[in-house]
Each structure stands twice: as C-alpha cells, then as structure tokens.
Amino acid sequence: MTAQKPVRTRIAPSPTGDPHVGTAYIALFNMCFSRAHGGKFILRIEDTDQTRSTPESEQAILDSLRWLGLDWDEGPDVGGDYGPYRQSERMHLYADYAEQLLAEGKAFKCYRTPEELTVLRDGRREAGNSTALKPSDLILPADEVARREQAGDPCVIRMMVPEEEGSCAVDDLLRGTIELDWGMVDAQILIKSDGMPTYHLANVVDDHLMDITHVLRGEEWINSAPKHKLLYEYFGWDMPVLCHLPLLRNPDKSKLSKRKNPTSIMYYERMGFLPEALLNYLGRMGWSMPDESEKFTLGDMIMNFDIQRVSLGGPIFDVEKLSWLNGMWIRENHTDEELADRLQEWAFNRKTLLSILPHARQRMETLSDFAPLASFLVSGTLPLTEDSFADLKGEREDTVKALQFALWRLEAQRHWERDAVFNDLKTIADALEVKMKDFLAPFFIAVCGSAASFSIFDAMILLGPDMTRARLRQAIDILGGVSKKGMKKLEKAYDALPD
Predict the structure, then answer these.
(1) Annotated binding site
(2) Binding site members for ATP
(3) Which of 250, 282, 427, 465 sits at a 20 to 30 Å CA gap from 438?
(4) Which architecture does CATH list for 361-495?
(5) Is 176 helix (H, G, I), strand (E, B) or coil?
C-alpha cells in the first residue's frame, strides 16, 4: 500500500494591487487545512503580469498576511526546498513544458490576430454556439502558418482541447463530482506572445513541482478545472485534490467588490480593526465551529478544523457584523493596560508621530493644537454630510466627476509617492481645465474632513492608499453617488483623458 503524501497547500496571490480580504480568506482556509493535517502551507507569488506586478504590492501582501497572524512554512522571504517561490524566477520551466506539449501535439502555435478572433467568436455566437474557440477554429493551413512565421508575426501557444461534445468530470472535496461541458472550454493560451506564461500553465507546473497535494481556491476557478485536469493528463502527473470555496459576497449577494465594500486588508488595519477579530470573522465565512461559537482564535479554528463544515452558500461579508465582533474582542480580551498598549502600537507610536510632526508643527502654537490637526490621520470614516461640501465652487456633478476620476487614477497607482499622486491629480485638473486650487478643494474635505489642513498630498501619503481611496469613495456616496448610466458616461470621458 502506497504511503499517503504529506499534505501541502498553497496560496498564490498576484502582486498587482492592494492585498484583498479574499486572499486572506483563501489563505486562512489553506493554512488551517494544512495545519489540521500536520502538513505544510506555502506562499507563492504569481508575478507573471510584469506590467502590473510591483515589489511594493508583494511586500504589502507579506505584511498584511503576517499582520493577520497567518504564517507560511515556505515562501519567497523564508525560502524552502521547492523554490524559487516567485513565478518570474521560474520562467525557463514554463517554456520547457510548453515546448514539450508542442512536440507531443498537445499544444499548437496560434497566429490569429485579435480582429480574426473577434470575427470567429461573433460567428460562433450567431450560430448559437458558445464563444469558446476550439483548435479547429484557430489552426491555420500550414502554408499560412509558414507565411506568418516568416513575416515575424506574433503568436501564442494554445493547448489542444476536445472538439466533441460531452462532459469533463472534476472531483471536488466539497461538491463531489462536478460535470463540466467540454463545449464551454476554449483552446486556452498557455504562453502569451511576449513569452510569458498564463496562470493556467504556470499554476499547474508549479503545483506539480512543489508537490502541492490539495488546492483550496475560490469557486470562480471551477470552470477552469477541465483545462487544468487536461494539462495534468497531458504531462502524466497526478492532479492535486481540488476544493472550491464559496465566494465572499456583499450584503446584496453580489461578489465582494471595492465599490460596495472595503476590500483591502490594509484598510482594516488603518481603521483600527484587531487582526485577531478580522481573522475570526474570515473564519466564519462559510465555516463554523462544532459548538457554533461566533468568537474563536486561530488556534481554536485549527484545532477544530474540518473542511466538510464549509457551507456552499455565498458567505456575506458585512462590515457592521465585523465591527460588532471587533468590539467584542476589544472589550472581552483586553484589560485597560493592554488596550492602552494596542492603541499606542496602532496609532500613537513614535514612528507615526515622527511622520506627522514635520507637517503639523508649522501650524502648532500649543501642544493641544496637535490633536485637531492630526485627528483625521487616526480616524476611520469621517463625519461628513453633503453640507460639508456646500461652500465649494461649481456644481455637485463636477465635484463627483473630479473625485471619481481621481479615484480611478489612484486605484491604478502602483507607487504611492507624493510626486506620483501630485502628477495624477494635476493631469486630471489640467484635462478638466480647472485651477489646481479649486480642483483640490473637495479633496481636502473628503480626505482630511476640513478645508484647513496641511498639504493634501502630504495628507494622502501619510494616510496611505487604502484609506485615501476609501475616503474618496465615501465622499462620492455622500454626494449622491453615480447612476449606472452616469457611470458609463464618466468612464467614456475618463478613457479620453491623457495618460
């Protein structure tokens, strides 16, 4: 009888933005599963998107998961026997495996242009078929392939997938056997035209080479499971056990999104949520303790963890319920002395004070001036109303437009530095033909809560990207928000802005 392999799970986030609570949720369940089975939990960075991946975002992932109390046995910062743990450092592996598939006729080079792909998909749609493109749709005659290759036209490497009708049976730890229609599975790109692998190839290769035994991931990956299963079969490898966890949802049951809920882990840290309370709340997302207790530690969760206790209904991420649970942790788990230590550690530490004082001291005449000057930096949601913006020049719609344009630009900002933020806002002000002083007026109120504050750019840097963006969203909502029709109009106008 073959000995069972030690359990190895992984979390594989992309360093392309703010660390997401959904990442922490998946990481928590992977960690608990591995610890409950005496196994290993691995952190792997999937940074093949070189245009969007940044070192700052990777560090934010490491910092936020560690702040929560999640720890990994192997990863880019701690090493391990299966490294390297960044996909960008494993590029040669993917190319070799793609070439193997090409040589074995399990993949093909595709020279189709974007325009041709659009025509092909439209044709399938008009014929009443799915828009999933098959090899027979994509493969060109040999002489045309030779011509395009000779001309140096770009190509991608796609995997061969079944043309015939039928279903692919995928076993899932929670859902049993899932039958997925092969007709919906396209000839997936494995290597992009720039030579970079897609998630699908890199994920399968890395999971195999790192001996991952169980893949616990969000249910949005269910439809990709046939492609992954097929790749394992092509390579002759054993497939890890799959477990698709339910997606976190907004109170209205829609998929959790930053437009309706704060999603950045660092936002909750800046708001003053306790990491153990947030982790506790994430543990309750579709899972429950045997005694149904609402408040429990990470150690309690690991000790009692059973993946079969996960409910497949979409768990609701409700900030009000999180706040209630956080309040319980504050009141029930801290003496006054301990709470004083937590407050000092959170906001009133020497590092924070030294970052604020160079800006506040210019406006201070007494020590008591410091608190009102800096209060917005240690506050969560500001007590603003529509009247807070009443004295601004211009129409409400123009103010909303400026805030929304800035929010989009700052959401795309990967380097949270004063000059970068200044350039973003200056570009928008110039495009809207608004004087910088008038353009910035609503930002002082939205971000600082007052028109009288030190430099708005310094304020944004001190406040950080997560809280700054959250306050801009709050201001837009306070001013009435944007309708669906209005949003499309704004998006079109925003797309026309200079870079």
Answers:
(1) 258
(2) 258
(3) 465
(4) Orthogonal Bundle (1.10)
(5) strand
